[in-house]
Design goal:
single chain, 448 residues, alpha/beta, seven-stranded mixed beta sheet, globular
């Protein structure tokens, strides 16, 4: 343990494990420690079901109707992967896909005036959707064609829209789209959490809509993927990657002190020994005096014996409740998985509702989502602080991840990973460079 490392990583959340893997691939000497005895940190999958009852201090044990405790793998922070998104690219390039099996999520839905509807994101779906009237459908179809053809390097495709100046509000106006259509486009397709994006330049939104459509085109049912046996498999996959490239892992290691001299990280003390390092990556729980609370998230894990109503009996789905529909500032998210993903006993479903807390009564805020899930057999409620670093690591070389937000996809997590990477290395994260490094070790073959 009394050794010198390039990078020490504390915590085995997904962000930390991916960065550990990336730094190992880059040839850095990495030591990865966690005070817990399991992978995943805040984003762990809990098994057996008895452990979930204990974790939430529920009295008694799960009823027999819930099957064997070992059949359950319940994510504390549920998220799906966009089929064409950044995390899937990271998994493919690093070949962590060899350790994982994915299933496509069966449907993506949006809430409007108390009911849920399939999110239309192709021209055919737009014309068939009951979300819109006939004329609205035609205008929306024209808008989708415009987005699909839009190329920021080809003015002919822009129809007078300046990608860096025209706001998204102006683009919606150009196609004469109504408020309900703006709601589901911005929140269920472009996946914004608030309406702040409306007055920003439109390029980011256009790219987000393209990402959704391209992800959907890959598998057809929805743009989302989910790993069999739960999200806990993801950090373990990246931990294996780090180990292949020489990274050292130590679970169940109490962290006694983070040693800083002259404002700069020099090492970490555990069980009386000091491991020295040039850079430190950690989640906020390891170094609270360099992070601040930036909000709260409520998550309610619900066990059901039925699929959610009006989702065509899907074994898995996402539902987004846009903030305007329920007079809020932030969207409410529901994601559901089931026995089909090896995370629940036969015939059982796990639905998880989450949102950013806005009032002193978070459970009331999430009620519109819970109403969609009734009847609920058992629920587990958590309210967590969201942390962001106050120290960006420029001088201290301590790089702290952000807490996982209320969204049900990994795009914001990947943005955080790329941001930390840039602060650590001074360069943008380059997918192509990772591809080359990986080929040096594995050759060009692989399970792509």
């Amino acid at each position: 343990m009394n050794e010198e490392y390039d990078v020490i990583v504390l915590g085995t959340g997904l962000t930390e494990c991916i960065l550990s893997g990336i730094m190992s691939v880059k040839g850095k000497k990495v030591l990865h420690m966690d005070r817990n005895s399991y992978y995943g940190g805040d984003s762990a999958s809990i098994t057996p079901l008895e452990d979930l009852y204990k974790r939430f201090s529920l009295p008694g044990t799960p009823p027999e109707s819930m099957g064997k405790g070992r059949d359950w793998n319940v994510d504390l922070i549920p998220k799906f992967l966009m089929a064409n998104g950044q995390l899937v690219r990271m998994l493919l390039i690093t070949q962590v896909t060899r350790y994982l099996d994915f299933k496509v999520i069966e449907g993506s839905f949006v809430y409007k005036k108390g009911s849920i509807y399939k999110v239309p994101s192709t021209e055919t779906e737009a014309l068939a959707s009951s979300l819109m009237g006939l004329f609205e459908k035609r205008r929306f179809r024209k808008f989708l064609v415009f987005v699909a053809n839009f190329d920021e390097n080809d003015p002919k495709t822009m129809e007078g829209v300046d990608p860096n100046k025209t706001t998204m509000r102006e683009v919606y106006k150009k196609f004469d789209l109504g408020q309900d259509v703006i709601d589901f486009t911005g929140h269920a397709i472009a996946l914004y959490r608030t309406d702040d994006y409306l007055d920003q330049p439109c390029l980011d939104t256009i790219n987000r809509i393209k990402l959704y459509s391209e992800s959907l085109a890959r598998y057809g049912k929805s743009p989302y993927l989910y790993p069999l046996y739960g999200l806990g498999e993801l950090p373990q996959g990246f931990a294996r990657l780090s180990a292949i490239y020489g990274g050292t892992y130590m679970l169940n290691k109490p962290i006694e002190e983070i040693i800083v001299e002259n404002g700069k990280i020099v090492g970490v003390k555990s069980e009386g020994e000091i491991a020295r390092c040039k850079q430190l990556i950690c989640d906020p729980s390891y170094i609270m005096d360099r992070a601040k609370v930036v909000g709260k998230v409520i998550r309610v894990i619900c066990i059901l014996s039925h699929p959610i109503k009006n989702t065509s009996d899907s074994n898995s789905c996402q539902i987004i409740i846009p903030q305007n529909q329920v007079n809020r500032k932030h969207d409410i998210y529901v994601c559901m998985i089931s026995y089909a993903h090896n995370v629940a006993a036969q015939g059982k479903y796990i639905a998880i509702a989450s949102t950013t807390v806005e009032t002193n009564d978070p459970e009331k805020e999430i009620k519109p989502a819970l109403d969609l899930l009734e009847p609920i057999e058992q629920k587990f409620v958590s309210i967590s602080d969201l942390y962001a670093p106050t120290d960006l690591g420029t001088d201290s070389q301590i790089f702290i991840s952000r807490s996982y937000d209320a969204t049900t996809h990994f795009e914001t997590t990947c943005d955080d990973i790329k941001d930390i990477y840039k602060r650590m290395t001074g360069t943008d994260f380059d997918f192509a460079e990772m591809e080359r490094k990986k080929n040096d070790i594995f050759g060009d073959g692989g399970d792509q």
